[in-house]
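step=encode ok
step=design start
structure_in=
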């Protein structure tokens, strides 16, 4: 089924599956400082979708990176406040709407850096 939304098309797939592996390690460096490293491998396939010319069986779901890595450094001020600096990497993927996996243009691999400050105001006691 294809649905026209005004901006682009949405495609409903009959069946698909996602499987993979995720590894994570958190390590306390010294008091108040810790690190967190995460790796995820994802294999996302279309199991069945026979729509005439849209025979997509066995194709990779678009916009799904196979490799995702993140590394964080965390500083804990106390039990209620911390700050985190995270670097993330996502491998290339098939472009949005490329269900047939034939487009020459792909979603490029990319990196992002995030900074977060968290305070849990409900737990603060004066």
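sequence_out=
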């Amino acid at each position: 089924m294809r649905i026209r939304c005004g901006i682009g098309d949405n495609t409903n797939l009959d069946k698909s599956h996602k499987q993979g592996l995720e590894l994570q390690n958190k390590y306390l460096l010294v008091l108040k400082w810790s690190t967190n490293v995460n790796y995820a491998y994802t294999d996302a396939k279309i199991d069945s979708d026979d729509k005439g010319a849209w025979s997509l069986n066995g194709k990779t779901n678009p916009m799904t990176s196979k490799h995702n890595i993140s590394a964080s450094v965390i500083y804990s001020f106390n039990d209620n406040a911390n700050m985190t600096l995270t670097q993330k990497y996502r491998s290339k993927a098939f472009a949005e709407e490329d269900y047939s996996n034939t487009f020459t243009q792909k979603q490029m691999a990319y990196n992002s850096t995030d900074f977060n400050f968290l305070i849990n105001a409900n737990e603060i006691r004066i």
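step=design ok
step=annotate ok -> The beta strands are 2-4, 9-11, 15-30, 33-48, 67-78, 81-90, 93-94, 106-107, 110-119.
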